[in-house]
Amino acid sequence: LAQQLEADPFDSKAIVNIAMLYAMVGDSGKATEWLNAARQLDPESRTVLENYSVLMLQQGQFKQHRVLAEAEIERFGRDLAASGTTLTPELYMWGGYAAYFDGDYAVAYERFMKVAQSYAATGRTVVTDDNFEALCLLIHAANETGAPSNPELLASLRQFLQQRTEAGVIHHRIAYWQALLAATTNDLPATLAHLSTAVNRGWRELGFSNQAPIFAPAREAPEMTELLARFNELLAREREQMPALTLPAPPDTTPISLADAQRDEYVGTYRAGITSIRVYDQGGELWVQSSAFPPRRLVALGPDQFLVDLSSRRLQMFRDAENRLTHYEEH
Q1: Angle between helix 132-145 and 89-101 (nearest 10)
Q2: Cα(first)–Cα(last) distance of the chain, in Å?
């Protein structure tokens, strides 16, 4: 990640991943600092916002997390509706977590059900690595609201774990999923044993998951107190081993003026795949226009990187050795 950041100091994904590494070892201060930097670079990125919401959950900010999640899901929903599509399973899952940790089990149940139904409707396997936790929380939300039990889903979850175990998959998440499944059936000894195994295998999300309502009975057990003490000692050692990383300075997004650049070096029409991009002079500033977006001012992030603010997305363009804008990547 440090190498990625050195190659591109404005790589918001690398910055997010570093932030979540800090969160994993319990350094919420640095995690927040790095995530804020990622939000400044890419304020409407779903990846950035979802990880920011995870950090809020880790810090126990359940109400604030739900406000953020609901606002962003509504915004993404409007964008999807405009293109004729509905909410994705991932957005339903995000909304389910927001309601679940806020104690609104009825809404959580409804949204987690949408996750299961969305996977089933597309012919995909209902249980996957991505939704196993959400489906366990669905069962817990059903228990809390008195909704009908779902023995088929419980059987599918058990079958999924059995298949992964028989395939020889030994990973900290397998042990965590086993703890979740045990918690859905109120098997406290198995829940505690699997959580301990997960920590031993490198699982570092106990501080977050320990706050989940599904683990409320385990929180009262003396074994959990001992496990949390050992877990915090592990985090302290791992924080000491974290390499020193320097947060990049925010980019200078001053619009490029023709006083800073040769007119014939930029102005013109360039081909970017099937799209043409026109760069032109407007009042001494460089502006860019394409069929994909309305006119925007062109700003520089570095000697070879340019950015156009698109409000709902950002367009980054690179020059080749001949000083031509030849291709672009959307973020």
Answers
A1: 50
A2: 19
DSSP single-letter state for residue 322: T
Bridge partners of 298, per DSSP, are 308
Annotate 17-36 with DSSP letters as a single string.
HHHHHHHHTT-HHHHHHHHH
CA-to-CA distance for 283 and 256, rounded, in angstroms?
Answer: 12
What's the order of all strands across the beta sheet hosting 268-272? 268-272, 275-282, 285-290, 293-302, 305-309, 314-319, 325-330
Q: Which two tokens stand for residue 313?
A: 């997305």
What is the per-residue pLDDT across 85-115, written as a single tens digit (0 to 9) for each?
778 888 899 999 999 999 999 999 999 999 9
Nearest to 10 by CA among 311, 213, 247: 247
How buried is 199 (Cβ within 10 angstroms: 0-12 exposed, 13-18 middle, 19+ buried)?
A: buried
pTM, two decimal places: 0.75
Measured CA distances, 66 to 35, 108, 136, 294 (Å): 18, 11, 20, 33
| 221 CB neighbour count, 10 Å cutoff | 15
Q: How far apart, in whole angstroms, are the C-alpha atoms of residue 10 and residue 262?
A: 25
